[in-house]
Amino acid sequence: MKTKYVLITPAHNEEQLIEGLIKSVLAQTIPTQKWIIVDDASTDTTGEIIKRYAGQYDFITYLRLPREDETTYYDHRTKVVLNGYQAIKKLR
């Protein structure tokens, strides 16, 4: 049985790092089933970079949220439908 996983990545003003992160995930030997990249109201080009990759790869979803505290962010995140995935682990 192949391993399946979902990524949820928060990003705020990460234009210097986000493309490298995306390329790193794309290069993994076990591909992700779904990747939701949450733009937490970035004021730089983070959102444009994410949208470009989301347009190229069906498993990448771009989600933009207004700037909020961490608790509100995780409440929004848990409302995203993951089609059969039950567990969400907080990584920060």
UniProtKB/TrEMBL annotation:
<keyword id="KW-0328">Glycosyltransferase</keyword>
<dbReference type="InterPro" id="IPR029044">
    <property type="entry name" value="Nucleotide-diphossugar_trans"/>
</dbReference>
<dbReference type="GO" id="GO:0016757">
    <property type="term" value="F:glycosyltransferase activity"/>
</dbReference>
<dbReference type="Pfam" id="PF00535">
    <property type="entry name" value="Glycos_transf_2"/>
</dbReference>
<feature type="domain" description="Glycosyltransferase 2-like">
    <location>
        <begin position="7"/>
        <end position="67"/>
    </location>
</feature>
<keyword id="KW-0808">Transferase</keyword>
<protein>
    <recommendedName>
        <fullName>Glycosyltransferase 2-like domain-containing protein</fullName>
    </recommendedName>
</protein>
<dbReference type="InterPro" id="IPR001173">
    <property type="entry name" value="Glyco_trans_2-like"/>
</dbReference>
